[in-house]
Write a structure and sequence with these properties.
single chain; 261 residues
């Protein structure tokens, strides 16, 4: 069971990360890149291992690796014209291989980092997560329509003076930031869930783009906060409970969509 302070901190982080991940993930689902978001989250493994090896916050290691990976993926996408799915797939497998070597040779216990555990969060962790989430949401809101226009027609976006490649880079960096933050509550193996399933749930029942983006954020918050509460009640790790909560929401929206058709 959590202490009262830890429960408050954990819920605050869960809501903040859930909202930001759901909101950013709504674009990833529109781009039909939901599985890319999941694979992208696994790229953080070497960063987590570095943090544990050299005793610094795993968030910093995860974000550093994700930041570099985002830039590399973006650059390769521009140079090769390959889809992000192909590039992220190759990057993911390379990062996974390096991470496994580091874990095995360093004899590291990555259980909490892989599956999430927020029993030891502090006030500083909470403030950092909330600030990062707010910044990510505000910056994404500024480029949201530009990203959607670029999805519809890159030529049209360019004709309106939009630098599609720069917008894509900023978006990838923001996703990296949110994914690194989300590792605290759901772990690196499951954090991709938060940028994929809540938006998919919203897509089932939303009628326009505004409702879709807002509901994606709301379902992200509901999944994360209910998962934290369940993990506290059942005294289990938070990551799996967040996933179970989110899948429950998804199942309900599938039922609602089926009922209204």
């Amino acid at each position: 069971m959590f202490t009262l302070d830890t429960l408050i901190f954990s819920l605050s982080i869960g809501v903040a990360v859930g909202i930001s991940a759901g909101y950013l993930g709504s674009l990833m689902v529109l781009k039909k890149m939901a599985l890319v978001g999941d694979a992208f989250s696994h790229v953080a493994l070497p960063g987590l291992a570095l943090g544990l090896l050299f005793h610094f916050p795993v968030f910093l290691g995860a974000f550093a690796v994700l930041f570099v990976s985002a830039v590399v993926i973006w650059h390769l996408g521009r140079v090769t014209r390959l889809s992000y799915e192909s590039i992220v797939g190759a990057t993911f497998t390379l990062a996974l291989a390096i991470g496994i070597l580091m874990v095995v040779n360093g004899q590291l216990d990555l259980l909490e980092a892989l599956f999430g555990d927020i029993k030891n969060v502090t006030l500083l962790d909470t403030i950092t997560a909330v600030i990062i989430s707010i910044v990510a949401i505000l910056l994404t809101k500024m480029i949201y329509k530009k990203l959607v226009l670029g999805m519809i027609s890159e030529d049209l976006a360019v004709s309106k003076g939009i630098s599609v490649s720069r917008i894509d880079l900023l978006y990838l960096l923001l996703v990296s930031l949110v994914v690194a933050t989300g590792i605290q509550i759901v772990g690196s193996l499951l954090v991709g869930f938060l940028v994929a399933v809540p938006p998919a749930s919203a897509k089932n029942i939303s009628s326009n783009l505004l409702k879709y983006s807002l509901m994606s954020a709301m379902f992200g918050a509901v999944s994360a906060s209910s998962g934290v509460l369940l993990s506290n009640y059942l005294n289990v790790q938070s990551g799996p409970m967040v996933v179970i909560s989110g899948i429950t929401v998804f199942a309900v929206t599938v039922g609602l969509r089926w009922k209204t058709r």
